[in-house]
């Protein structure tokens, strides 16, 4: 694909054994807005800042947390348009799996296929790696699960993770606060407090987004008023 | 006709070039292939609150009943269902495919699917295959624009109707609809009319039989009444029981139920690797 002059892979090894383009992609992720996820005993919560470039932007039309299947949702840090491509591909793959096997796709399978797409773009001609890291939250037969997928295509299962600008502070905060027997409501409170740590300005239901999935296996994004209720509980 | 040096290009329309050859073949004894009848009665009608779809449950393989209780009402979307007549594999595969495409469309748009979307996807697929996908469908649903009912033919043509019937039992069912349908039927009247139409197909058409399936779709709600009516029950055992002939001496009686109850053990050991 593309011009013959650019049909070689732009992701070539450096003498130190690193793929510099992927390192740069991770930097792009690191300068994106903070997002985090926490796996509770009975569900998963993912959250992100929703800082818009100007007050004139219609914030109700922007949705960073997306649903992939009825029981799997995703949030990103990094370049929004890149995440849209991945969301579209993942939804299609989940649907194809369902058509073939007549069962809802397990979270691990969907993560694996999404990661495979991201890896493809680090080894193909004339393309660049995706400038996003994804946090995939799902609930299937194996219980609640949280996965992080990086631009290189590597993925890990996390109990709690953060990405983006404030990643080191957020991760330290999560390490202190996380407990294995945490319930979903506690997890939402912890998520809000973690976001609050590095938040510039006044936090409200309109400038953060929270998505949860509980034992009912239905992923949903909380409405701004529901977020306000949680914020009041945290105060 | 003047003879032209250059060949004129085809202007479209039917080409009569092969008619002479076909006549010659028929005269020489060639048997033209006959059309396969679709053994089904499927119906749909619009009532005051939405759409009611109905179907029989007999699947035939020539003169043999292959499935006495198959499902002919297929899911397309939470608010759209489709009855299928014709080759069972074709109707199932095509409705499954369009259902999948509509799920993706719903994720991308964030909106409820519309019946005309399903209609367009189905008819363009069937047209592309020029009638070789043998699926005759009755598509019905309720969306933001209201209740809709359509019929789709294997070649890709569609009709939009207030009441419709398809399949080999369609004439029997249509006779019922034509005499008893009116606008603004209530739910009970609609279900009764659909059941009557399907029963008419079941009893008067060889290709249709067994039970009546009904699906009622209204705004925001759907009711799938599987085996709503079973007018053809099967009697397995004679009520009189089995009696031995007078010369046989009954020594002992042991009754074994045909269906064993499965005991589920909670927290049992996993199967060995």
UniProtKB/TrEMBL annotation, chain A:
Keywords from the UniProt entry: Cytoplasm, Hydrolase, Nucleus, Protease, Proteasome
Family (UniProt): Belongs to the peptidase T1A family.
Short name of any one Pfam family annotated for the protein: Proteasome
Organism, as annotated: Lithospermum erythrorhizon
Family annotation (PANTHER family): PROTEASOME SUBUNIT ALPHA/BETA
GO terms under cellular component: cytoplasm; nucleus; proteasome core complex, alpha-subunit complex
GO molecular function, a single term: peptidase activity
SUPFAM superfamilies in the cross-refs: N-terminal nucleophile aminohydrolases (Ntn hydrolases)
Protein name: Proteasome subunit alpha type
Domain Proteasome alpha-type subunits residues, every copy: 6-28
CDD domains per the UniProt record, alphabetical: proteasome_alpha_type_2 (cd03750)
Automatic annotation (TrEMBL), chain B:
The UniProt record lists the keyword Cytoplasm: yes
Keyword set, alphabetical order: Cytoplasm, Hydrolase, Nucleus, Protease, Proteasome, Threonine protease
One Gene Ontology cellular component: nucleus
SUPFAM superfamilies documented for this protein: N-terminal nucleophile aminohydrolases (Ntn hydrolases) (SSF56235)
Nucleus listed as a keyword: yes
Active site residues according to the UniProt entry: 40 (nucleophile)
InterPro entries (alphabetical): Ntn_hydrolases_N (IPR029055), Pept_T1A_subB (IPR000243), Proteasome_bsu_CS (IPR016050), Proteasome_sua/b (IPR001353), Proteasome_suB-type (IPR023333)
Gene Ontology BP terms: proteolysis involved in protein catabolic process
GO molecular function, one term: threonine-type endopeptidase activity
Places the protein is found: Cytoplasm; Nucleus
Catalytic reaction list: Cleavage of peptide bonds with very broad specificity
Gene3D superfamilies from the UniProt entry: Glutamine Phosphoribosylpyrophosphate, subunit 1, domain 1
Family membership: Belongs to the peptidase T1B family.
Quaternary structure note: Component of the proteasome complex.
The protein's role, per its UniProt record: The proteasome is a multicatalytic proteinase complex which is characterized by its ability to cleave peptides with Arg, Phe, Tyr, Leu, and Glu adjacent to the leaving group at neutral or slightly basic pH. The proteasome has an ATP-dependent proteolytic activity.
Protein name: Proteasome subunit beta
Naturally occurring in which organism (per UniProt): Lithospermum erythrorhizon
């Amino acid at each position: 694909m593309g011009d013959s002059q650019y049909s070689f892979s732009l992701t070539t090894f450096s003498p130190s054994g690193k793929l510099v383009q992927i390192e740069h992609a991770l930097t792009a992720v690191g300068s994106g807005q903070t997002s985090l996820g926490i796996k509770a005993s009975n569900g998963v919560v993912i959250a992100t800042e929703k800082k818009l470039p100007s007050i004139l932007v219609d914030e109700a039309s922007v949705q960073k947390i997306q649903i992939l299947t009825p029981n799997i949702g995703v949030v990103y840090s990094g370049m929004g348009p890149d995440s849209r491509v991945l969301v579209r591909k993942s939804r299609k793959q989940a649907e194809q799996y369902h058509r073939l096997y007549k069962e809802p796709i397990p979270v691990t399978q969907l993560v694996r296929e999404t990661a495979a797409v991201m890896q493809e773009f680090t080894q193909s001609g004339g393309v660049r790696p995706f400038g996003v890291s994804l946090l995939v939250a799902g609930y299937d037969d194996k219980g609640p699960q949280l996965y992080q997928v990086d631009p290189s295509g590597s993925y890990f299962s996390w109990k709690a993770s953060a990405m983006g600008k404030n990643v080191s502070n957020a991760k330290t905060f999560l390490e202190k606060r996380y407990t294995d027997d945490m319930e979903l409501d506690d997890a939402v409170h912890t998520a809000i407090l973690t976001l609050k740590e590095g938040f510039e300005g006044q936090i409200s239901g309109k400038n953060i987004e929270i998505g949860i999935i509980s034992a009912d296996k239905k992923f949903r994004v909380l409405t701004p008023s529901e977020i306000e209720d949680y914020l009041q509980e945290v105060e | 006709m003047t003879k032209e040096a250059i060949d004129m290009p085809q202007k479209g329309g039917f080409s009569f070039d092969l008619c002479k050859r076909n006549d010659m073949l028929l005269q020489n004894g060639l048997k033209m292939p006959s059309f396969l009848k679709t053994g089904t009665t499927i119906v749909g009608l619009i009532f005051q609150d939405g759409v009611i779809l109905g179907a029989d449950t007999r699947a035939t393989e020539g003169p043999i009943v292959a499935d006495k209780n198959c499902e002919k009402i297929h899911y397309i979307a939470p608010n759209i269902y489709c009855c299928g007549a014709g080759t069972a594999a074709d109707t199932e595969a095509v409705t499954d495919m369009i259902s999948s495409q509509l799920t993706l469309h719903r994720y991308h748009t964030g909106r409820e699917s519309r019946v005309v979307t399903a209609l367009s996807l189905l008819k363009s697929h069937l047209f592309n295959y020029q009638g070789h996908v043998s699926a005759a469908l009755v598509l019905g649903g309720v969306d933001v624009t209201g209740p809709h009912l359509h019929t789709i033919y294997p070649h890709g043509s569609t009709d939009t109707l207030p009441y419709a019937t398809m399949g080999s039992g369609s004439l029997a069912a249509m006779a019922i609809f034509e005499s008893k349908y009116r606008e603004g039927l209530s739910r009970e009247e609609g279900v009764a009319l659909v059941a009557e139409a399907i029963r008419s197909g079941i009893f008067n058409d060889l290709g249709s039989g067994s039970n009546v399936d009904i699906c009622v779709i209204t705004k925001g709600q759907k009711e799938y009444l599987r085996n709503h009516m079973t007018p053809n029950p099967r009697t397995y055992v004679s009520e009189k029981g089995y009696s031995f002939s007078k010369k046989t001496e009954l020594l002992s009686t042991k009754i074994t139920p045909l269906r064993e109850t499965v005991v589920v053990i909670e927290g049992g050991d996993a199967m060995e690797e």
